[in-house]
């Protein structure tokens, strides 16, 4: 198992313990859960939560009756997730999953592709997800939008900093984001159309793509909407109605791509993972 030591350090400092539970990041969590609830097979089904962090999604999946195994390369995440009722967890790498062929009904990759700037590594992770699910099983993968860093920088006012501006413009051109603000955060940001090509090259059927937050994550009062039960449901419904509009996909901070695997892999396996 190989993980960039800077990325490992970033997550070992505990940033994922609360990220999706507070502030406007709750919109990402709620919309991910919303899409998954509409696309997953009914419980009980076996779900591999690959790169599942501290178990923010594994927790509700287990509560709703799914059999959940979380696999993550960060020891802190595995320890936190192992304490959740109904969730098993172990160390592992998305590019070399420690599971037999066709073991799962669902493979979730809700974070691993964020940190794989090498396309061969991303294809390997997608191919492993394909291998791990049974015929008729589901693969769901999360991506950071190519334009998310620039949008976020304007939202927070960081764009006035030359170093930050240069990093974000570089990310827009190449997809590779090395943040001057978040020490150790090295990410890969996807153009929405790029997702389709990577699925195809990994032997996966063309996915349905969902823009999770739409433009709503950029609204200054989004926290107020999320804090109010009635307004929150209105916001989620509005985002649902726009989620697959092609012209708006890149505006979302995050995207989810979901596909069904109808046949066992027949091609030769992708190259083994390289160090990142």
Automatic annotation (TrEMBL):
The keyword Repeat does not apply. This is Ubiquinone/menaquinone biosynthesis C-methylase UbiE. One of its GO terms (biological process) is methylation. Transmembrane segments: none annotated. Keywords: Methyltransferase, S-adenosyl-L-methionine, Transferase, Ubiquinone. Residues 48-140 form the Methyltransferase type domain. Signal peptide: none annotated. GO terms for molecular function: S-adenosylmethionine-dependent methyltransferase activity. The lineage of its organism: Bacteria, Bacillati, Actinomycetota, Actinomycetes, Streptosporangiales. It comes from Nonomuraea polychroma. It holds the Pfam family Methyltransf_11.
